[in-house]
Amino acid sequence: MQKNMFFDYFGSDCFAAVTEGDRLVEFHLDSGSSSEISGNIYKGRVVNVLEGMQAAFVAFGQEKNGYLYAGDIPAEAELAPKTSLLNVKVGDEVMVQVAKSPIGKKGARLSMCLSFVGKKLIFLPTAEFCAVSRKITSEEERARLTGFAEKLCADGGGFVFRTNAQGAQLRELKEEAGYLRGLYAAAQEGYKTAAVGDLIYRDADVHARLLRDFDLEGVDRIYIADETAYERVAKIFKKSKFKNRLVRYRGEREMFEYFGLEQQVYELISHRVSLANGAYLIFDRTEALTAIDVNTGSFTGETGLEDTVFATNLLAAKEIARQVRLRNIGGIVVVDFIDMVSEEHRAAVVAELELYLKEDRAKCNVVPMTGLGLVQFSRKKVKSDTVSMLTKSCPHCKGSGLILSDAYIAFRIKCAIKKCFANGYENAIVELNAGTFAYILSEHCFSEDVRGEWRQKRVYMIPHRTFHEEQFSVRGDNNDVLTLPETARLLY
After folding, report:
1. CATH code of the domain in which 7 resides
2. Residues spanned by the domain of 191
3. What is the pLDDT of residues 368-402, one digit of tens each?
4. Is the peptide bond before 81 cis (omega within 30 degrees of 0)?
5. What's the predicted TM-score (pTM) here?
């Protein structure tokens, strides 16, 4: 099955996707205005120490202070005087890395145990050990890599051999280790002159992280629509065997819309997910966990009830693994499978879920099915889920529901405009919500398009105060003279 990757920028937002066949299996959004800061390193100051919770709160330049657990402070940290079990006191200045971005009302989780991630290695400057990824299962290969540990750690610190380290030679690993040590040295130098709250080290953005962390051996094409991002990746891949897999997308239609991805992304905000046999899943999020309900829907099967239920649960297990990966659902997940009588069937459904969760790059742990047919599993969470990135709280229902964010509505409008021009029209007439129109103007959402590929076209926008935030329409017109209302405005 063909596997492709897609990258595009819309303003400061980076959209990234991975497909298998025509189906979306991963989607990532990095927003320049969001709180997705995991991996970044800051200079912070301890503002509160809670002995009873073995945690400290640290101001590090963000809206909310981060929290630092005792277990995330290196044992050798020399912060004197030591007035607490945490080795830190109020007023101490510390170099902290964001382990988990702030989510909802929770501040970021911070760590003083720094890590610098490469393609094959993770450098741990405050550790004194080497480890091998559990996904490398060959004992012979694990022993070979472990044999390199002493030479890599000779200058201090520890390393984790990532899955991509399989087959790597010592020379390659030494080169990457030197590069990662250089990043740490640069962070140390920056920390010396930085003020509290300053960013010391920025982790790679979403396209760089995916290309760094993803196993590219099975990837057929890497489509990049943004010129700057393409040139950056092409430079990195200049001497790589993957350079011929890069494709600069130059189509008239928006890339995500052209490849059928935009509709699949849009469907991620739905609570309901249909299965191929007519059954469906319902996703409900709470602050503590995500609940997934499996329903037979219109599927009645061809044999007995038990076989019908078993077939539905097997199909649901596979789709649930795909959806939690797509939606980037983290934390605790509880699945209410349809009740089954057969213990063999119950075990098979859990095994099916575990099988497909293994394809997830995030760590997942599955608990056996309970007597009520519930299966619990956890998925490592380091950033906000996809739905919260694509939506915002609805002002009409005061937080009990969601509507699309201004940026995502503008992106959908751009897709419709590009499709209009691709269909041969010279003029595009957009009718939209007045607030969305004001956002597009204030953020200059389409300014680069107007100066670039739309410079010979005309885009008219007609704002409506009565339109719902998500409501808009785009139509094409090739007449030289247009009849438009007085509120119509030629974009930029």
Report:
1. 3.30.420
2. 116-201
3. 999 888 999 999 876 778 888 888 877 766 666 77
4. yes
5. 0.76
